[in-house]
Amino acid sequence: MKVTTASALAVRIAEAACVTDAFTLADGQVLDSYFDEYRLAADPQLLHDVADAMAALVPEDAKVLAGIELGGVPLVIALSAATGLPAAFLRRLPKRYGSKRQIEGTSIEGRRVVLVDDVVRSGGQLAGMARILRKAGAEVTDALCVLERPLGGRLLLEEQKMTLRSLLTESDLASPAEARS
């Protein structure tokens, strides 16, 4: 199915990946619904269509897309394929064996890197990953996400001199039944 409108894509995402159930965040806060990025990533056509839509959000001077484990990895692979930009993959912690790297994939040193993740809530994870990339020599001024939840992430990223570009906000993902009516 080819997506023709943003609202049609929002409905498909809501149907596939929005779950009404208790979800506990890392800080202990409990939400009554959540975005299941694995359901989105498991649907190849939906993942392709989301990447195509997100491609328009990538700044023109971007040189590398960096996906944060685990939710950002399938997105960054699909977005890399849609844009032709190389990808890097970020672990929350350095690998404890083998290469012992925290940043995998293409070189980021001296390049403009755009962070990619599934959902932005508080923004803490993106801000932390931006610090790691900057320490490794990357220029990081932008982050992309599929869904932005209104829990302070945009403000935190602005304080870190980063622009958040979200495909959808929580209000765009009305329940599938509401979106069809």
From TrEMBL:
Necessary cofactors = Mg(2+)
The organism encoding this protein is Streptomyces alkaliterrae
How does the record describe its quaternary structure?
Answer: Homodimer.
Please list the GO biological process terms of this entry. 'de novo' UMP biosynthetic process; pyrimidine nucleobase biosynthetic process
EC number, as in UniProt:
2.4.2.10
What is the protein's given name? Answer: Orotate phosphoribosyltransferase
Work out whether the entry's keyword set contains Transferase: yes
Question: Mind listing the UniProt keywords for this protein, alphabetically?
Answer: Glycosyltransferase, Magnesium, Pyrimidine biosynthesis, Transferase
Q: Catalytic activity annotated for this protein?
A: orotidine 5'-phosphate + diphosphate = orotate + 5-phospho-alpha-D-ribose 1-diphosphate
Q: HAMAP family of this UniProt entry? A: PyrE (MF_01208)
Please give the pathway this protein is involved in: Pyrimidine metabolism; UMP biosynthesis via de novo pathway; UMP from orotate: step 1/2
So what family is this one in?
Belongs to the purine/pyrimidine phosphoribosyltransferase family. PyrE subfamily.
Q: What does this protein do?
A: Catalyzes the transfer of a ribosyl phosphate group from 5-phosphoribose 1-diphosphate to orotate, leading to the formation of orotidine monophosphate (OMP).
Please list the residues that bind 5-phospho-alpha-D-ribose 1-diphosphate. 91, 95, 117-125
Q: Which PANTHER family match?
A: OROTATE PHOSPHORIBOSYLTRANSFERASE (PTHR19278), URIDINE 5'-MONOPHOSPHATE SYNTHASE (PTHR19278:SF9)
Question: What are the protein's GO molecular function terms?
Answer: magnesium ion binding; orotate phosphoribosyltransferase activity
Phosphoribosyltransferase domain: from which residue to which, for each copy?
A: 42-150
Q: Which residues bind orotate?
A: 149
CDD domains according to UniProt: PRTases_typeI (cd06223)
Q: According to its UniProt record, what is one Pfam family this protein matches?
A: Pribosyltran
| InterPro entries xrefs | OPRT (IPR023031), PRTase-like (IPR029057), PRTase_dom (IPR000836)
